[in-house]
Amino acid sequence: MSVNTLRRLCLALLASTVLPSLANADQTLRIGYQKSSTLLTLLKARGSLEQRLRAEGIRVTWHEFPSGLPLLEALNLGNVDISADVADTVPVFTQAAGAKLTYFARETPSPTAQAILVPADSTLKTLADLKGKRVAVTKAAGSHYLLIQALAQAGLTFKDISPAYLIPADGRAAFENRKVDAWVTWDPYVASAQRQQNARILADGSELASYQRYYLAGSDYAKAHPEVLQQVYLALREAGTWTKAHPAQAARILGPLWGNLDSATVQQANARRSYDVQPVRPENLGEQQRIANAFYREGLLPKKVDASAVSLYEPVQK
């Protein structure tokens, strides 16, 4: 082997060590998402993420889930590699099940994007009026924590109501057919119920629950593919900025994907979401701990959870 050939091989080896490449033959990134996963839904619809990763030999597959808890259960089982945004409550439940999670991005608070809804002609006027009532809520969702906090503010607990744990589609049906007295949910379901069913907001998350949404990866995947998380993070930031700058265009894409919602409903929902994608810092986990403590006090978690016992991915800011 010549000196020049040996030098080229050494340089190639050094470059592959110091500058890891995304390129990985036949690598597939499996993304779990739900209908309220606005930014990744937009990336999927526009093909933006595939375009980013295709040149690096990475294929993307998409897997839809009805809500955040089954999505993170799939992440824990290794059936998906990363999850789209889930409400701040969902990782707490998954941690209680022993999941190894890595937070790689978050959307800053959107407290008014979830609410307790009642029919327009309901006699319920205050949070205290929920006592003895049947309330639909999705287990482990951000709305679940909102309900806990709202009841606490009124001097009530879950023992004072009859909770009906329903996924959003079933919650909407139960609410529309008057099978429940109230429905606690998030956008775009809130905006849709307001505009299509004339629902009234009894309370939203203001001063009760900040409602941050987190993007997570399985810890093994995050350790093996930090460069992929970097690309997803940058794509999410771009999508968030674009959505806020082009509300009508975003609504035209999202409306059909959200059950043929009209543009005004989608824009109303999106106006209440921050879509401000940022890194996850240790101090952001303070509310996660408060959420964990609240669920444990209510007997809804089987054990205490240390919300800081997770891994945090630090993206490169550009």
From TrEMBL:
Part of a binding-protein-dependent transport system for aliphatic sulfonates. Putative binding protein. Belongs to the bacterial solute-binding protein SsuA/TauA family. Residues 1-25 form the signal peptide. Pfam families: NMT1. Coiled coil: none annotated. It is found in: Periplasm. GO terms for cellular component: membrane; periplasmic space. Residues 28-257 form the Solute-binding protein family 3/N-terminal domain. InterPro entries: ABC_SsuA_sub-bd (IPR010067), Solute-binding_3/MltF_N (IPR001638), SsuA/THI5 (IPR015168). The keyword Ribosomal protein does not apply. It comes from the Bacteria. Keywords: Signal, Transport. This is Putative aliphatic sulfonates-binding protein. The keyword Transmembrane does not apply. GO terms for molecular function: ATPase-coupled transmembrane transporter activity. SMART domains: PBPb (SM00062). It comes from Pseudomonas parafulva.
